[in-house]
Amino acid sequence: MDDIRLHWLDAHLIEPTRKARRNLLLSSGISLLLIKGQLVPTKISALGISIEQIQRETIFQALIAVTVYYFLKFYIYAFLDGEKQSYLAKKIVLGAKLPENYKDIDKAYRSERKGKHEEVGIRIFIWALLRIGIDFTIPLIIGIYAIYHLIKAF
Length: 154
What we know:
single chain; two-stranded antiparallel ribbon; 5 helices; 3% strand
């Protein structure tokens, strides 16, 4: 079962998901910096432009839209990556016993694993959970926090 251990130690987020995570963290960070740091400009003196209240609201609307977009994009991409990894893990465990019908894979997997202890190991399991926390949960929490404060400031 070394294959299943290698599977759980491997990186699970594909490149588009990592880019969506990066963009979510950037838009959330910029939003929080503007709100918490009270850095929303009122005047750009180099260009001679003054920003009125209506334009400030437009800035917040744009930030809300961009942050929600990247939040949803990252959530959907990460969910699909998780489904893919779950399928691959089941495929590794089932090997040649893999059913042709996708609906039967979960049933076959539960039947194969019934009464058996997980062979992944506790250390690999703990590191995999930490990775999920860092790669998935923390960016989502930061995104929700930023969206909340953007809506509150709006």
